[in-house]
């Protein structure tokens, strides 16, 4: 027996993209079903993004979930680049005519989205197995899934694939329709979360001959640090002591000297990858967020690119349901991709600027050096970094 139900928008994936879209639509009276493969604890246990653009924060507020973010998140007016043993501040606020970014963890905003859903009596269907989208190029697409030994079906008007890079929705687009663009970097980031006082109240991106390092934070008692590591490394192979020692080596002496260390409460390695799938719409299926594109985390653009997709998709669906206007739906893929590619370019550029590429020829290494020297000596170059870092307009 198949348990059958109906909804306006069926959403695959209960990460930030799916949750945010569902919440936004719900507030406009549009019904959604949200299917998530894992438990809530699992989703909330993934330590990821920390830096939010203005546009992302606006969407959270529009979804009615901005209160804690505005109270506990910190507005950052600048970031620092460490190079040749010195810190160079990039005045984001001054260079962009007053724009800033907000430091607020992905875990926290995901929790806020789940709690808002609970408060409205809405559910996320967790531990949904074998989720599959069907009949995407007809007027009657539907989703099927399994849970506790039972099979379910939801008839939908539209289906949104917000199921991340390893999800199933992108795979539902035929091979001869989907174009994929990819770049894999020859290293990963080893990240550590620790209950220590952050070494700096603004982020430090460090370019060093031993490799890249990043000092970030979640709040005044919670630090997040990363170091570039070879792809073959395993997190279990890095003791806390080895991590702190290597991080210190890659920071200016003055910064390393005041680094507070402590036990890690999370430690993991993420490979670095750039990836875009085109188009982002196939019939009545829309891809959003990591399901369609990935960036290396250097420019803090992953979650923010997901948010720009949600912005375009939300408005496209509102126009359809409230006014019968399908222009936004027709143009979704082109509009979303135009901004996605700019974030791709910026993330690729920041990654090339700051990491150690040991196998590159000496010519490329000299170019990387002069790129940094130019950035640190030119207002125009710093302005370009700043306007991308705070986020291009939607
Ligand atoms: P997610 O977060 O991967 O969520 C997808 C959800 O879909 C579920 N799922 C399925 N559900 C049902 N059926 C299936 N078959 C399913 N397959 C998967 C998954 O369980 C999951 O819950 O994608 P989403 O929502 O698009 O969000 C994207 C962001 O998570 C991602 O872009 C950012 O975390 C990237 N990122 C950063 N982005 C920023 O904007 N600023 C940052 O500072 C930043 N730092 C980072 C980052 C990512 C990192 N890692 C580990 C990749 C730092 C790191 C280290
Ligand atoms: C983080 O705090 O996790 C973070 C911050 C900035 C980045 C990437 C990750 O560019």
Can you describe this structure?
With 394 residues, this protein is an alpha+beta fold. The chain is 36% helix and 28% strand. The protein has an 8-stranded mixed beta sheet, with helices on both faces. The N and C termini lie far apart (45 Å). The site of 8-demethyl-8-dimethylamino-flavin-adenine-dinucleotide has 37 residues, from α1, β13 and α9.
> Unreliable segments (pLDDT under 50, ≥5 consecutive)?
none
Total helical segments: 12
How large is the share of residues in beta strands?
25-35%
Report the CATH superfamily of the domain at 2-76 and 97-181 and 273-351: FAD/NAD(P)-binding domain
Indicate the CATH class of the domain at 2-76 and 97-181 and 273-351: Alpha Beta
The largest β sheet comes out as: 8 strands, mixed
- Rough outline: globular
Strand line-up of the largest beta sheet? 7-6-14-15-16-13-17-20
Radius of gyration: 21 Å
**Helicity range of the residues?**
25-40%
CATH topology of the domain at 2-76 and 97-181 and 273-351: FAD/NAD(P)-binding domain
């Amino acid at each position: 027996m198949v348990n059958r139900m109906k909804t306006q928008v069926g959403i695959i994936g209960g990460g930030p993209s799916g949750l945010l879209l569902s919440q936004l639509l719900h507030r406009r009276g549009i019904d959604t079903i949200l299917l998530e493969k894992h438990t809530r604890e699992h989703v909330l246990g993934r330590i990821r993004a920390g830096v939010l653009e203005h546009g992302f924060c606006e969407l959270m507020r529009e979804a009615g979930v901005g209160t804690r973010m505005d109270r506990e998140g910190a507005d950052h007016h600048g970031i620092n680049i460490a190079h040749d043993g010195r810190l160079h501040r990039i005045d984001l606020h001054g260079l962009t005519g007053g724009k800033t970014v907000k430091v607020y963890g992905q875990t926290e905003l995901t929790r806020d989205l789940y709690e808002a859903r609970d408060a409205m009596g809405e559910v996320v269907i967790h531990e949904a197995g074998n989720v599959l989208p069907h009949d995407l190029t007809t007027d009657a697409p539907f989703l099927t899934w399994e849970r506790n030994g039972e099979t379910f079906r939801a008839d939908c008007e539209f289906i949104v694939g917000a199921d991340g890079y390893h999800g199933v929705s992108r795979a539902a687009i035929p091979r001869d329709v989907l174009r994929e663009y990819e770049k894999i970097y020859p290293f990963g980031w080893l990240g550590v979360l620790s209950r220590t006082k952050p070494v700096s109240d603004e982020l430090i991106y460090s370019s060093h001959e031993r490799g890249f390092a990043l000092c970030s934070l979640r709040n005044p008692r919670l630090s997040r640090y990363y170091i570039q590591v070879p792809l073959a490394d395993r997190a279990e192979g890095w003791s806390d002591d080895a991590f702190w020692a290597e991080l210190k080596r890659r920071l200016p002496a003055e910064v390393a000297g005041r680094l507070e260390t402590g036990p890690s409460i999370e430690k993991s390695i993420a490979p670095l990858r750039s990836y875009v799938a085109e188009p982002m719409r196939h019939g009545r299926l829309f891809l959003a967020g990591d399901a369609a594109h990935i960036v290396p985390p250097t420019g803090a653009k992953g979650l923010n690119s997901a948010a720009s997709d949600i912005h375009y998709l939300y408005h496209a669906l509102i126009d359809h349901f409230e006014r019968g206007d399908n222009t936004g739906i027709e143009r979704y893929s082109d509009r979303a991709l135009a901004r996605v590619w700019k974030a791709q370019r910026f993330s690729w550029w920041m990654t090339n600027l700051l990491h150690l590429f040991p196998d590159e020829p000496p010519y490329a290494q000299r170019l990387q050096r002069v790129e940094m020297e130019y950035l640190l000596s030119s207002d125009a170059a710093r302005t370009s970094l700043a306007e991308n870092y705070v986020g291009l307009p939607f």
